[in-house]
Each structure stands twice: as structure tokens, then as C-alpha cells.
């Protein structure tokens, strides 16, 4: 076995610089250049103090003009902007979940989509009080899907999955009017509250932001996760590879990018089809390689072992290799720049969703009824494009790391069962993990999530924080682009136990796990909520008492703000490396970093210095341990 070595951010950057040289030959643009054109950023926007929600303005708050034309002060303006930002993220994640509900509703024994985890479907049905006895599995799937779809618009009640939280958390939500009602109602209510002439009181705006976030985390995202597992299989540990070196020069390279696994699963099916592989060989290729970018990549990696080409800010890099026959996208986090960039090469930029239509793309509409037919067309289109490559532009950086991915909550519990004494211990619980934490073998856990972001040095915060935390015996669960940063660096290789403290290293050896556990895509942060809730129940504690914190050091999207709101809303203190455009209001800063503790027992910490951010997380974990006397 070759000697294990982490890949550094400097090595990532050197590989990117070489790709940008290729881009320069064909006049290609890239985000690195666009950042320079957009710098310096608007200070009013950064502080959240500009308002354009009516046409009396736009207004911006200064010492000379402390109120907008309507009389709203800076605290109301920043609060409304924050709530609108959250609503956008909650709507986006939850619409992803809605699409998965619709896909489940369309599943059939002879259809494009089938039920791959019937046991999980039955468990959810029972959890929701749906009769399962004697029912055809597809009749049950349709009933569960329809019940799930009703969560979006039901006129009464709160989200069904809230019952998964410890009673203490449910009581906090009820007491403070934070329990989310219908998902669409919370998004709509957020937009109503932030309309001209409605709420301008920061406390009310932040409370609604938390409720809208919770409707995402315990509603739309959780359904997206659970029903994806039912349709495509609940993830379990699987070996894969990460970074641009997973692309294969002699093969047809198809890159899937976005968030909805309904598309990528079908692409993978047809890329494995012997007929398609034979056709690729006829066209001069040796085979077909599917790799992924962003959360779609996480989805197919954890279920199929499909390699991860990169995260958010590497999406242009896959085209710059000159070896990408097609980049196939669905929704969210897709650069409109991919259209013009692909035209500089031979790459086909294929959009598939009416929600994400872009210039300079080939639109092949994808839906549950025609999924097989359209996926086959996309794979065939990519194969036929292989001959159009320009060999002089082909350069794939030979850089990749091994990764073990697919640690769903169920998979983590199964791994813990492997280290229990079956004679005396109870199986199927998180108690072995709690015992490691109580004894001090592990100090705690960090949920590392979020995008990478050109406002900071991409991937550096994720990787450096992870290295610091695991060296201090803190285990990490990761999702989204943060997980891909870890995988690219090698922190999801089981051999990475050697960069851990003695306690975490021992746990990794006994449980046969890497120190950074891959939990999936961004909607799969809902898995982290379930894990935290289960740990709290097994320990007899509030979630807020667990030595666990959340961290998004490089976040950039509205979805990330929604996530942050539901993570603190669930009792988990959350640490950010990028300010959420709220620093222009002292009242908003005070509420977000302290005031929310009164409602949900958790709050945000914003710290742009990576070293200080890591120290603050460790200090918070130790503070929670001390409060428990462990």
C-alpha cells in the first residue's frame, strides 16, 4: 500500500492554475477573474443595510440617513433582509424535497423509479400512522408520498417529523411559537412579514427565520432525504475517490452536477448499460466515466461509489480539463458561466429542469415519466461528442484521494454495533458513541457543512479546521461541499486516523471508520438532526447539552442561512466563517449571537479567523462537557 499523505490546498491551487492556462488559450472566463472584477464588494450590501423592497427607494442607511423613506431603521432593514434570505433557502431545499415526493408518487414495479428500501418506507408509514398491513408496496409508497406532499400546504397542524426531536426541544418550539406549520406557509409568511409596511421588529423577524428554517430541516429536507433513501437505497459505507483525477482521459466523461438524485441516478443507470458502453467503444472511447460535482455528486457517491470530481468552486475546472463530454445539471448552485465556458471547448452543457434554465445550454427536460428515455438520450449525446475533443486542450490533473462515504444515521448505528459487547450491551443505539464521549476518549463532535466561497480561500477553512479538530479527538460528520473538501484532502480515507489524537485514532481503528464521516448532500443535514436527537434521547439530555456544535466556515448560499437557522433552532450552537450580512445592525448581531439562546438554547458565533474559529468550537465543546461534569 502506498504511503498515505493528505493533499494540501496549495496542491489544489496549483492544479487549478494549470487548468486556467488551458482556459487562457481559448479565451475562457473563470470565477477567479470575475471575483477581481467584482472587488471591492458593496459595503452596504455586506452589512445588510440597503433596502429595495418597494420603489420609494432603494434606501440605504448611513449616519446622515438613519431611516429609510418609510421610517424603518437599520435593525428592521437588516432583519427583513435576513428573513428574505432564509425564506429563499427554505423554499429551495423544500422544493427539492417536493420533487422527491413526486418521484416517489410516480414509482412503480414496472416504472423508471422503484422502491429500493421497502423497510424504510414501512417504518416511515408507521411513524406517520399510515396502515401498512396487507398493502402492495407501491400503493403504500403513493400513500406516503401524498401524505408527504400535504406537509407543504396543509391548513392545520405542524410538521410530522418534529416528533423525532426530544420532547424538551418540542416544548421549546411550542412555547416560543417556533414549531413550523405547513412548509409553504412558513415561506409565504416570511415573504409577507418582510413586505413593505409589515414587520420591522428584529425579534419577530429572527423568530420567523428560525421557524422557516425548521420547516426546511424537519420538513422539506428531511422528506428529501428519507424518500431518496426509499427510492435509491439508504446509504451504507462504500469506497470511492475524490478530486479531478477521477476523470479518465480515454473514456467518455459525463459530469453530473446539482442536487436532485432523480436525474443522476438515471444517468448512472444508463452509463452502466452494456449497450451504451459498446456504443462508446464504437466511437473511439474505452468506456464511460460518470463523476460528480456538488451535492448531486454526494448523492451518487454514497449510493453507487461514483467518484467525486469536486465541489462547488470546481465546477468550471471539470470543463477546463478539455475532457468533459457533457456536464449535466439539475438545480441549485450551477454557474450560468458554464454555458459560455463550454462553448470554448467541445463540452455539452445540458440543463434538465424548468427551474434552472440557462443561456448557452442544451435543454433536455427531465421528468419521472420519461426519465429512462431522457437519460439514455443524454448519455448517447455525450458519447457522440467524444470525437469532437481537441486533444491539445486535454489535461486532467493527476490528483485524487480514496474516500469511504455513505454514513447515514442507520450506517453509523450499525458501525457502533460492531464495537459493542453483544452479550451485555443493547444493539441499535448510539450508546457506544456516548460512552466514548462520556469517558473522554472523544471530546465531542462537529457537524461541518456548507459551500466553499471565493470570499475566503476556498477549502482552506474546511480542511484546516478538520485537521485541528480531529487532532483534538473531536469526530466530524460532514455533508455537502464541506464533505467533498474533506474527501479531496484525504480526510475520508480510513488511513487519516494517523492525523488524529490518540482517542479518536483508537475509535477509528475499532469501528473501522475514517475520522470525517460523510453523511451526504446538503439536504442530508437532516440526518444530522436525527442523529443529534437520537443521541440526546439515549443520553437523557437536551440536544443543547450535548458536546456537539455545527460549523459552516465557507458558506455562501441562501440555503446555508436556512440550514443555520434550523441547526441553532434544534439546539446546536453554530459557528460561521462568513458573516450573514447582518453586521450593520447591533440589535440583529446581539439576537443572532446571544438572544436566540432564550428561545432555542443555541446561537451563532461568527469568526473569520480560522484559528480562532477552531479554538472557539473546542472551547464550546469543553464548556458543554464541564456543564455535564464529564
> Shape from CA axes?
globular
Number of helices: 25
Overall mean pLDDT: 96
The order of strands across the largest sheet is: 6-5-4-7-8-9
Q: Report the structural category.
A: alpha/beta
Strand share of the residues? 5-15%
Question: Which percent bin holds the helix content?
Answer: 40-55%
Structural features, described:
There is one protein chain. The protein has a six-stranded parallel beta sheet. A six-stranded parallel beta sheet has the order 13-12-11-14-15-16, sandwiched between helices. The protein contains 25 helices and 16 strands. It has 630 residues and is an alpha/beta fold.
List the helices and strands and how they pair.
Layout lengths: L8 H17 L5 H7 L5 H5 L2 E2 L7 E2 L13 H33 L11 H10 L9 H14 L16 H9 L7 H11 L8 H31 L5 E5 L9 E6 L3 H11 L2 H9 L5 E6 H11 L3 E3 L4 H6 L5 E4 L8 H6 L4 E4 L10 E2 L7 H15 L15 E5 L3 H9 L13 H9 L4 E5 L11 H12 L2 E6 H10 L12 H10 L4 E5 L4 H15 L8 E5 L5 H12 L4 E3 L9 H10 L1 H4 L3 E3 L3 H19 L2
Helix pairs in contact: 4-6, 4-8, 4-9, 4-22, 5-6, 5-9, 8-9, 9-21, 9-22, 10-12, 10-15, 18-25
Keywords:
alpha/beta, globular, six-stranded parallel β-sheet, single chain, 10% strand, 630 residues
Task: Briefly say what this structure is.
It catalyses: CO + 2 oxidized [2Fe-2S]-[ferredoxin] + H2O = 2 reduced [2Fe-2S]-[ferredoxin] + CO2 + 2 H(+). Helices cover 48% and strands 10% of the residues.
Amino acid at each position: 500500500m502506498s504511503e498515505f499523505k493528505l493533499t494540501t490546498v496549495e496542491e489544489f491551487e496549483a492544479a487549478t492554475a494549470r487548468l486556467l492556462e488551458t482556459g487562457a488559450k481559448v479565451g475562457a472566463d473563470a470565477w477567479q477573474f470575475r471575483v477581481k472584477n467584482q472587488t471591492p464588494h458593496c459595503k452596504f450590501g455586506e452589512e445588510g443595510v440597503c433596502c429595495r423592497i418597494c420603489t420609494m427607494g432603494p434606501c440605504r442607511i448611513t449616519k446622515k440617513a438613519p431611516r429609510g423613506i418609510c421610517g424603518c431603521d437599520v435593525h428592521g432593514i437588516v432583519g427583513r433582509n435576513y428573513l428574505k434570505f432564509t425564506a429563499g433557502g427554505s423554499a429551495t431545499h423544500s422544493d427539492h424535497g417536493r420533487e422527491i415526493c413526486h418521484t416517489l408518487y410516480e414509482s412503480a414495479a414496472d416504472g423508471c423509479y422503484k422502491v429500493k428500501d421497502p423497510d424504510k418506507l414501512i417504518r416511515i408509514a408507521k411513524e406517520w400512522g399510515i396502515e401498512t398491513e396487507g398493502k402492495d408496496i407501491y400503493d403504500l409508497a403513493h400513500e406516503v408520498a401524498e401524505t408527504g406532499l400535504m406537509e407543504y400546504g396543509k391548513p392545520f397542524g405542524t410538521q410530522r417529523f418534529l416528533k423525532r426531536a426530544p420532547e424538551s426541544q418540542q416544548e421549546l418550539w411550542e412555547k416560543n411559537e417556533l414549531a413550523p406549520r405547513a412548509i409553504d406557509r412558513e415561506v409565504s409568511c416570511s415573504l409577507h412579514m418582510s413586505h413593505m409596511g409589515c414587520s420591522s421588529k428584529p425579534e419577530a423577524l429572527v423568530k420567523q427565520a428560525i421557524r422557516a428554517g425548521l420547516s426546511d430541516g424537519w420538513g422539506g429536507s428531511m422528506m428529501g432525504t428519507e424518500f431518496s433513501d426509499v427510492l435509491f437505497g439508504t446509504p451504507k459505507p462504500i469506497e470511492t475517490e475524490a478530486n479531478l483525477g477521477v476523470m479518465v482521459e480515454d473514456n467518455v466523461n459525463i459530469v453530473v452536477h446539482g442536487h436532485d438524485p432523480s436525474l443522476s441516478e438515471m444517468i448512472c443507470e444508463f452509463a452502466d448499460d452494456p449497450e451504451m458502453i459498446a456504443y462508446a467503444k464504437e466511437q473511439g472511447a474505452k468506456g464511460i466515466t460518470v463523476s460528480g460535482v456538488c451535492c448531486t455528486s454526494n448523492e451518487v457517491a454514497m449510493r453507487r461509489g461514483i467518484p467525486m470530481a469536486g465541489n462547488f468552486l470546481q465546477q468550471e475546472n471539470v470543463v477546463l480539463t478539455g475532457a468533459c463530454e457533457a456536464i449535466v445539471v439539475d438545480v441549485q448552485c450551477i454557474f450560468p458561466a458554464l454555458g459560455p465556458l463550454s462553448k470554448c471547448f467541445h463540452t455539452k452543457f445540458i440543463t434538465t429542469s424548468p427551474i434552472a434554465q440557462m443561456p448557452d445550454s442544451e435543454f433536455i427536460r427531465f421528468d419521472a415519466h420519461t426519465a429512462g428515455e431522457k437519460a439514455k438520450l443524454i448519455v448517447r449525446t455525450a458519447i457522440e461528442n467524444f470525437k469532437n475533443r481537441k486533444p491539445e486542450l486535454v489535461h486532467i490533473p493527476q490528483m485524487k484521494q480514496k474516500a469511504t462515504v455513505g454514513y447515514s444515521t442507520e450506517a453509523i448505528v450499525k458501525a457502533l454495533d460492531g464495537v459493542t459487547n453483544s452479550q451485555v450491551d443493547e444493539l441499535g443505539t448510539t450508546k457506544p458513541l456516548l460512552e466514548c464521549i462520556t469517558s473522554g476518549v472523544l471530546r465531542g463532535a462537529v457537524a461541518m457543512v456548507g459551500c466553499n466561497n471565493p470570499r475566503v480561500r476556498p477549502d482552506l477553512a474546511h480542511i484546516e479546521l478538520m485537521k485541528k479538530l480531529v487532532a483534538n479527538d473531536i469526530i466530524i460528520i460532514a455533508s455537502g461541499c464541506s464533505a467533498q473538501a474533506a474527501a479531496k484532502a484525504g480526510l475520508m480515507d480510513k488511513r487519516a486516523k494517523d492525523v488524529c489524537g490518540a482517542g479518536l485514532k483508537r475509535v477509528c481503528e475499532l469501528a473501522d471508520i475514517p475520522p470525517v464521516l460523510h453523511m451526504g448532500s446538503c439536504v442530508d443535514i437532516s440526518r444530522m438532526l436525527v442523529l443529534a436527537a437520537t443521541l440526546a434521547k439515549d443520553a437523557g439530555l437536551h440536544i443543547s447539552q450535548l458536546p456537539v456544535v455545527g460549523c459552516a466556515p465557507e458558506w455562501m448560499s441562501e440555503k446555508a442561512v436556512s440550514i443555520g437557522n434550523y441547526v441553532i433552532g434544534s439546539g446546536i450552537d453554530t459557528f460561521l466563517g462568513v458573516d450573514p450580512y447582518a453586521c450593520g445592525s447591533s440589535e440583529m448581531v446581539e439576537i443572532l449571537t446571544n438572544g436566540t439562546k432564550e428561545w432555542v438554547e443555541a446561537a451563532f458565533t461568527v469568526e473569520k479567523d480560522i484559528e480562532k474559529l477552531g479554538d472557539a468550537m473546542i472551547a464550546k465543546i469543553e464548556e458543554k462537557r464541564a456543564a455535564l461534569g464529564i
